[in-house]
Write a structure and sequence with these properties.
The mean pLDDT is about 95. This protein has an eleven-stranded mixed sheet, with helices on both faces. Strands 10-11 form a two-stranded antiparallel sheet. The longest helix has 24 residues. It is about 40% helix and about 15% strand. Helix 9 packs across helix 15 and helix 10 packs across helix 14. By secondary structure, it is of the alpha/beta class. The protein has 16 helices and 13 strands. About 55% of the residues are buried. It has one domain: Amidase signature (AS) enzymes.
Amino acid sequence: MSAPLDLSLRAQAAAIAASEVDPADLLEAALARIDGRNPAINAVVETFPERSREMLAAAPTGPLHGVPVVIKDEWPLPWRAQRFGAADMLAKTAPGESGPYRALRDAGAVIVGVGNMHELGSSSTGNVSVYGPARNPWNPERCPGGSSSGPAAAVAARLVAGAVGADGVGSMRYPATYCGLTGLKPTFGRSAMEGHHMAGVSTTIVSGPLCADAADCRLLGSVLYGHDLRAGDGSGLRIGVIENEVSEDVAPEVRGACEAAIEELRQATGGEVRKIELPELPAATLATVLIANSESLGNVTPERLNNLHPELSPLGRGLLKYRLMLPAVATVKAHQVRTMARQRLAEVFEEVDVIAWPTVPAVAPPLEAPLVELPSGTLTADAANVRGGALANLTGIPAISVPVGSSEGLPIGLQLQAAWGRDEVLLDAAEALESANGRRWVEAVPPLAAAEQTGA
């Protein structure tokens, strides 16, 4: 029999509601499991048992009553300021009630720890952080993805069943893929953002759920959205596929798994596959990077840059200084590309319900050298990953990464994207795909978790 902490997010909530599981025992089990498993993966950078117990004591009867969760180091808590995985950041941070914190609190959830993240949210790998790198539970020598590295690794290692991340340029979908999870990037503006230091400034960042499967993402996502994400049947799904580098310059095992999953999804929904064209995709990728960086310029001054904390990594320091060099005309052009991309997607989504391509083109690379081997040659993971991750952030559309395979003992993910506001369609499609493959991939657990499946 599985330990209560190994149950799904929704099963934990149901067991607590039925008085089959004592939430106080579940919280202590989560704290104990973090103590036992976390040293191997560095997913959780801080726990606060007394604060967690206080949250539980005051928890209202809500959809996540008594369920322990992890939150990314990108969100402030009333007792802790966010650090963004960095020794220094230009924006001032302070403890506070962020939107995700309030959403979790009001749903009765218990925040059991803060998840590690890539320094300044600036990479898809998770291998640089002031707390030390987070590690992939499937292989601790591999990247867990970034920048929501800790939340993903924590869920994959079954420290908790759900975590809140943030996605500014693919930052939840990359770790979802590397760690074998389902990660939902909401439509821009639908999920809780209050309290984020970029709230009101960023046009790309959203909060979102990282869970083992789509049903858990639906539950945690509903909490973050503030309303139920209702289920549909997903029948007759029109699946758009593209023939360019995002689907073809991909490791053979990833391409094969994703193509097989698309066919399974077509069959499961009684749908069809249609070829689409997105010639703007390379320009959209560059535009996303330009916009995300230019929106972070508010606190940048030469004096501040000359007094950065010495523990900030050379890459982090370089990134902050690079932003001052961005020409204004480049940002203006980037917004023009955004407009064109949105117009093109509006046309595409008249013909298809979802767009499908690999979330990332290769499995998790080594922490020490985050490089991937693709048909085009050797690329950095960041340069390869952003090609498939940026479009949803640029245009604001929802996207989801779903586990669909494995290679070298490491997970493979398929990304689905839908029209603005059609987040529920993605969850329906993900659930249809899970059923089609017998839930093989969403129920797979890494060695770190499988070795103690019935223990703490």
